[in-house]
Design a protein that fits this description.
This protein is α/β, with parallel strands linked by helices and 338 residues long. It folds into 2 domains: 165 residues, no CATH class; 149 residues, Rossmann fold (3-Layer(aba) Sandwich), CATH 3.40.50. It is 39% helix and 23% strand. The chain contains 12 helices and 15 strands. A 6-stranded parallel sheet has the order 12-11-10-13-14-15, sandwiched between helices. A 5-stranded antiparallel sheet has the order 3-2-1-5-4, with helices on both faces. A 4-stranded antiparallel sheet has the order 7-6-9-8, covered by helices on one side. Helix 5 links the parallel strand 10 and strand 11. Helix 1 runs antiparallel to helix 4, helix 5 runs parallel beside helix 11 and helix 7 packs parallel to helix 8. The longest helix has 26 residues. The chain starts with a helix and ends with a helix. 37% of the residues are buried.
Length: 338
């Protein structure tokens, strides 16, 4: 989940808790080019306040027009389809003939507890699935889940469609060591919408940290990893060059559910590190999870170059995972048959 979508859910929670009704719009399908992916969110209030994004402006303007004209749904969720007619492309400016399907839900104060639970779950870096029936009275349920799953709009003849969406925490980059590489990596990762945490047991190193928007943890890395990065949306990277610190963090990281674990160092240093980890009773399967030397082999030498190499590898692996998820998604398989 991107930061903007997490902000949408937070806004919905706050508005409903304050007794203000609102609408939640979710992209459920895209065909052709689309500015934002399936699952993206936007919320709006009666006064026209918007949080989030669906299309970069054109679809948002249409929703506001419907709101002002009193045409926005009030009693049941509705599926709106943009880009099907040629005039849509001209009016809305959807790129390259793209189509966008959006579910718009009217939300009332009775839904406040549901969205409070969603935000609480995300704050704990856990996933939760919300199911809503697209009909008057819209039944809405939550279920805690272990991992992320693609959005699905269940449509069967003779039944009301059901939207099922899993919300998960933002991608986290958990960095062990507050050195120069961590500084460049944190700055660049922030631009890629990572939630960045830097852990270092050395108070003097953290005292010099000056990257805004980054969470800092002064603790031993093994304890910090278990407390803050034991989830499938976290990548853990050791960057201190001090085996007393890095190895301790890696020993814990390789036993977590983190999707990526890496360590900085040369090929020789990495080989010695694997030998030490084996002596710490980690299994060959656990040690095989370690990406070391970390990053793509682009000949990087300087701290910013190393940071680029690391983010390049994370980006490539993330894109690969996304492609696999989209290929196996029920909504994508259904679209391919149309």
């Amino acid at each position: 989940m991107q930061a903007v979508d997490q902000a949408v859910l937070g806004a919905v929670r706050d508005w409903l808790a304050a007794g203000e009704a609102c609408w939640l719009a979710t992209i459920v399908a895209t065909y052709g080019s689309s500015p934002r992916p399936v699952g993206s969110l936007l919320a709006c209030r009666k006064d026209g306040t918007l949080v989030g994004s669906l299309s970069g402006g054109c679809v948002e303007d249409d929703l506001i027009e419907k709101l002002v004209a009193g045409e926005l749904v009030t009693d049941a969720p509705k599926l709106l389809k943009y880009g099907l007619a040629p005039e849509d492309t001209e009016k809305l400016g959807l790129p390259c003939g793209g189509h966008l399907h959006v579910v718009v839900e009217p939300l009332a104060t009775r839904h406040a507890a549901i969205f409070a639970t969603i935000v609480e779950r995300l704050d704990k870096r856990s996933c939760i699935t919300r199911s809503v029936r697209l009909a008057a009275g819209a039944d809405m349920t939550l279920s805690a889940v272990d991992g992320f799953a693609p959005l699905v709009l269940h449509e069967a003849p003779g039944t009301d469609p059901v939207l099922e969406q899993t919300y998960g925490p933002r991608r986290q980059l958990f960095l062990i060591g507050a050195g120069m590489v961590s500084r460049y990596l944190a700055e660049m990762a922030g631009a890629l919408d990572y939630d960045v945490t830097v852990c270092d047991p050395r108070e003097d190193m953290l005292a010099q940290w000056a990257v805004p928007g980054v969470r800092t943890v002064c603790a031993m890395p093994d304890d910090a990893v278990k407390a803050h990065a034991d989830d499938p949306r976290s990548a853990i990277i050791a960057l201190t060059h001090d085996p007393r610190i890095d190895d301790m963090g890696l020993m814990a990281a390789l036993e977590t559910r983190a999707w990526y674990v890496g360590a900085m160092g040369s090929s020789r240093t990495s080989a010695k590190r694997r030998e030490r980890l084996a002596q710490l009773d980690l299994s060959p399967e656990q040690i095989d999870r370690l990406h070391a030397p970390v990053g793509l082999p682009i000949g990087s030498k300087t701290p910013p170059e190393i940071a680029i190499a690391i983010l390049a590898e994370l980006t490539a692996l993330t894109a690969e995972q996304r492609t696999m998820a989209e290929t196996t998604s029920p909504s994508k398989r259904a679209a391919a048959t149309r």
